[in-house]
Amino acid sequence: MFLAWKEIKHAKGRYALITGVIFLIAFLVFFLSGLAYGLAQEGRMAVDNWKANAVILTKDANDNLSASQFDKEDINGVTAKEKATLLQGASVIQVKNDSDKKDNIMMFGINKDQFLAPKISKGEMFQNNKEVVIDESLAKQKGFAIGDKVLFTGYDTPMKVVGMTKGNMFNMAPTVYMSEKAFQNVRQTPVPMQKNVNAIIVRAKDGNLDNVKVKNKKLEVIPTKEFIDHLPGYKAQVMTFSFMIGFLILIAAIVVGIFIYVLTMQKKQIFGVMKVQGIPTSFIAKSVVMQTFILGVIGVVIGFVATIGVSLLLPAAVPFQLNVPLMIVIAILMIIIAVLGSIFSVRSIAKIDPLQALN
Predict the structure, then answer these.
(1) Segment 256-284, tens digit of pLDDT
(2) For residues 113 and 15, what is the distance between their CA atoms, to the nearest angstrom?
(3) Long-range CB contacts (< 8 A, 24+ apart) of 246-252?
(4) Which residues of the chain have pLDDT under 50?
C-alpha cells in the first residue's frame, strides 16, 4: 500500500491520466444506468404502484392490456384476497382554452373504492364523473394545475383536475385516473360494451398465485413480473441498455489493463533492481494491483459524484432516475474488473529477469 501510494504521488501526471479515463468511463456507465432505469420506470411505475401479484386478461390478448376486453361481471368468478377492475386507453389531454398545455396520456378508469386508487400527493381523489386525478409530471413538464378544466380527444365536455399523484407513468406516458363511467364517457363507449373492462388486477393470499382462481376459461392469470416484461418495448429496452453498460465496463477493464501494462514495462529496470535487492515478486505485484485499486476507487467515486451533480441539472423531461443500490453494484464491478485488468501486468513482472533488465 505504501509503495503503491508513494509511486502515485511521484508520477502524478501519468496516474491522473489513468484516473481521468476511469472517471469518464464510470460517469458514462452511471449516466447510462440512470437513463436506463428512468426509462424502465416510466414504462412500469403505475403497475408497481398497484402492488399486485397478477393481472387477469383474456387469453387471446397476448398479454397486451389494450387488446383485452371482457365482461366486468367476470370479477365475481375470481377468487383472490383483493381484486379490482381496470379500464385503460390512450388519449390526449389539453387544458381548456390553452393549446400549449397539451400532452399524450394513458387513461385509467377505476373504482376509487378499490385498491387501484392512486395515492394522492396534492389535492383530493375524484368524487364524480367530471373529475380526474393526474400524474405530477403533467404539472412539472406542461404546467397543468389543480382546478384546471381539461379536455380529452374526441370528447368536448371539460373535466376538472382535482388531485395529483406522484410516480404514476405507464408505457412512457403520464396517467390520468378517473371513474369507470367517466372513462366510458371520454371514449364514447357504445352501450353494449359499457360493461366491459380491460383487466382484473388481483392480490393473492400470501402472495401465492395458486390461491387465485378464475371461473371464466377464456381468461388467464398473468404474474405481474411477466406482464411488465411483455409491455411493448420494455424488455428490448432493458436488454439494450444492459448490454451497453456491460460492454462499457469490459472496455474500462481493457483500457486500464493497457495503461498499467505500459507503465509496468516503462518501470522494467526499476523492478529489476528491486528484485536484485531481494524484494519478492509478490510484493511488487501487490503494489501494482493496489495502485490499480486506488486509481479505480478514485475514478469511480468522482464519476459517481459527477453523475449525482449532473442529475440535479437535468430538465424534468429527461427520464433520468438514480438507483443508488444499482450504482453501488456497478461501481464495485468496475473496480473489481479494473483490478483484474492489471493481472496482465503482474504476469509481466513475474517474467522480468533482473540481469536482462539491468543491461
Answers:
(1) 778 777 777 777 777 777 777 777 777 77
(2) 62
(3) 248/25, 248/28, 248/29, 248/32, 249/29, 249/330, 249/333, 249/334, 249/337, 250/337, 251/25, 252/22, 252/25, 252/26, 252/29, 252/334, 252/337, 252/338, 252/341
(4) none
